[in-house]
Every structure is written in C-alpha cells, then in structure tokens.
C-alpha cells in the first residue's frame, strides 16, 4: 500500500483525482501508511529488490546504499523512504529539491546528519545545479567542501560526513543528469496499480478508517482511482462521507457510484477538467488536430495545467494522442462521451492544422 510524495507543485491540490497531497491528505496518509515492507501493497518487484538491499546492509552492519525512486505522484515513494528508515532502525530527515536552491542549504542539512540517518530528497530533479554538484561528492565520498570567502581569497574547507543513506524521489527521472543518477546504488521505478491491488489498498484503508465497505464497493472506487493509491484513499474518504450522510454508512457499489457522481468522477476516473479537455477537443475542434495553447484557451485553463495535469492520464487511457500537428482525440474518446466522430476526422482539417502543436 502507499500514497506518497508530499509535494507536487504541478497539480492543483483541489482536484479530487489529483495525485498531489494537501495538508489534510498528508495527515490522513500518515495514519494509513504501512510501517514495513510486509504491509506495503503492490510494487512486488521493487519490494523484493529493496528487501534484499536492506537485509544485506543490516547483515553487514553497514549503511544502506543510496536509493532512487521514480514514478508518478501518489504511488508510494515517500512511504518507501520511511519504510527504509524503519527497516534500518535509523532516523529520517525529509526535504525537497525546490527547498535547496543554494549549495549552502544542502551543506547545512548534510553537516547535521547522524551516522546511518536517511535523508529523503523529494523532487530531486528540481534541486539547483550548485547543490547538485555538491551532492556528488557527499554521496560518493561522504565529504563536502565548504567555500569560505569570495574571489581569489576563497578557501575550500573539507568537511567529513558520517555515512548516510540518500533516498531520492522524482516524477521525472529523465531530468536527472547521468552523474547523479549513476551514484545511486539502487534505482526503482514505481508502476501504476492494477484494480486488484487498489482494492486491497481500499480494504486496508477502510479497516483503518473504520469504514464498512463490501467487495463491489471497493471495486467501484478502485476502477475510478487512476491506478494511484493516494487517489483511491481520497475517493474512499469522500464516499465514506456520502454513505454516512445519505445512507446507513455501508459502502456498496451503488453508494460508491452515486457518491462519485456527486463529485464528478466518472467510471474511468475522469473529472471535470479531463472531460472539459475532451469535450472541447471533440465538440469545438472535431477531434483535432489542435494546438495545446488553443485547447487550453478553449477550456479556460493555463497551457501548463492542460499539459501536465490532464493530458498524461488521457494519453495513458488511450483517449487522446499527441501528434506533430497537435492533439487528436482517439475513437475511444468519442465512444466515452457518447459522440459520433465526423467522417472527416483523421483526414486532417486544414484550418485546425494552422493551430500547430
């Protein structure tokens, strides 16, 4: 089980199916997080490999190798970092790449670490370049050079660090420079969850939240959770509220479907923004191709919001495709909204082509 990454500046926190975590989510997630690898649901390969790494380190009496976890928000990266610390019986310190804008910021954190401590660095790809270069030496030699003074009189003072384990998390592994990526002893990519795994997550969370839920109710929520445990937990809490107010508290398939209809989350997990993008693409532009900027204006959102929040899920669901000429709806998109594609769709509309990619 898992629902992770405490920061994701790219996604609006108010979206019920968004994978970012606000203050309330973080508080609930802290109570729901598994405490060891045995409780962690899903990601079997990652769990097996990480278990070997940690067992071997404990047997040697050594600090665990540095770990890099990549994957979409909400899949369990922060949870795994806490489990690593727990399995190694070590304290953990949590920070993020955007919070480290200068090498001095990183030096201050590193110099205060205890031996064997786990440093969790979320969104590590967003760290500043000077701090990143300092991290190379810290990871490899457990040493940093602190620069005192400026100009010709500047002096580098070497500072020895106690052995520590860096756990880096990123949603964009491709943005990490090879020298940094190569210094991690273990790297793992977190995959999206299948419906059966999400049902297990939901049943476990329901037990911890004291929510009565049947198998069909859990399946209904799992099918709308976009393969993400954090979203599954968020939907479970909203369905719980609906069941308490509108029914007898038991979450069934009918109650879950009715509750999620109220919150505008459809059977495939699309919310208002997702459907707005599809409806604009189909109804206003005949299925495309249409440029991203034009599509964003049509739905009243920023270009970045459409590209980074709505598009990834729509592409993964096979409802939208990115082409050199622009965004294009797939036959599945027309079917999902119950619309009939025009005969000319796919042959290329000259006017729409002017919008570009």
What does this structure look like?
It catalyses: ATP + H2O = ADP + phosphate + H(+). Residues 342-357 have a biased composition (Polar residues). One of its GO terms (biological process) is DNA recombination. Residues 63-194 form the AAA+ ATPase domain. InterPro entries: AAA+_ATPase (IPR003593), AAA_lid_4 (IPR041445), DNA_helicase_Holl-junc_RuvB (IPR004605), P-loop_NTPase (IPR027417), RuvB-like_N (IPR008824), RuvB_wg_C (IPR008823), WH-like_DNA-bd_sf (IPR036388), WH_DNA-bd_sf (IPR036390). The chain is α/β, with parallel strands linked by helices and 357 residues long. It has three domains: 34-189, Rossmann fold (3-Layer(aba) Sandwich), CATH 3.40.50; 195-262, Orthogonal Bundle (Helicase, Ruva Protein, domain 3); 272-353, Arc Repressor Mutant, subunit A. Helices cover 45% and strands 12% of the residues. The chain contains 15 helices and nine strands. The strands form three sheets. It has a five-stranded parallel beta sheet with strand order 2-3-6-1-7, with helices on one face. Helix 7 (195-209) packs across helix 8 (215-222), helix 7 packs across helix 9 (229-246) and helix 8 packs parallel to helix 10. Residues 4-13 and 345-357 have low confidence and may be disordered.
């Amino acid at each position: 089980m898992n629902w992770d990454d405490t920061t994701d500046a790219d996604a609006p926190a108010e979206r019920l199916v968004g994978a970012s975590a606000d203050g309330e989510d973080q508080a609930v997630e802290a109570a729901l997080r598994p405490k060891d690898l045995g409780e962690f649901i899903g990601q079997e390969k990652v769990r097996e490999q990480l278990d070997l790494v940690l067992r071997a380190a404990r047997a040697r009496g050594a600090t665990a190798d540095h770990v890099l976890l990549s994957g979409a928000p909400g899949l369990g990266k922060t949870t795994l970092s806490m489990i690593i610390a727990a399995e190694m019986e070590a304290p953990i310190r949590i920070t993020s790449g955007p919070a480290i804008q200068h090498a001095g910021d990183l030096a201050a954190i590193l110099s205060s670490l205890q031996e064997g401590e786990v440093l969790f660095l979320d969104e590590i790809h967003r760290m500043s370049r000077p701090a990143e270069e300092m991290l190379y030496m810290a990871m490899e030699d457990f040493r940093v050079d602190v620069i005192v003074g400026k100009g010709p009189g500047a002096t580098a003072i070497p500072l020895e660090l106690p052995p520590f384990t860096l756990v880096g998390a990123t949603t964009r592994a491709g943005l990490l420079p090879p020298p940094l990526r190569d210094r991690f002893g273990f790297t793992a990519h977190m995959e999206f969850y299948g419906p059966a795994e999400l049902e297990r997550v939901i049943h476990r969370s329901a037990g911890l939240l004291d929510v009565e839920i049947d198998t069909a109710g859990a399946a209904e929520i799992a099918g709308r959770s976009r393969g993400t445990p954090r979203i599954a937990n968020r939907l479970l809490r909203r369905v719980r509220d609906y069941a308490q107010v509108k029914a007898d508290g038991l979450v069934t398939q009918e109650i879950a479907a009715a509750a999620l209809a109220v919150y505008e989350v459809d059977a495939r997990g699309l919310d208002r923004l997702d459907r707005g993008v599809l409806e604009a693409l189909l109804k206003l532009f005949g299925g495309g191709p249409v440029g991203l900027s034009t599509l964003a204006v049509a739905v009243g959102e920023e270009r970045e919001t459409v590209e980074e929040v709505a598009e990834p899920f729509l592409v993964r669901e096979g409802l939208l495709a990115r082409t050199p000429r622009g965004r294009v709806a797939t036959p599945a998109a027309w079917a999902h909204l119950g619309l009939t594609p025009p005969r000319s769709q796919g042959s290329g509309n000259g006017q729409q082509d002017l919008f570009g990619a």
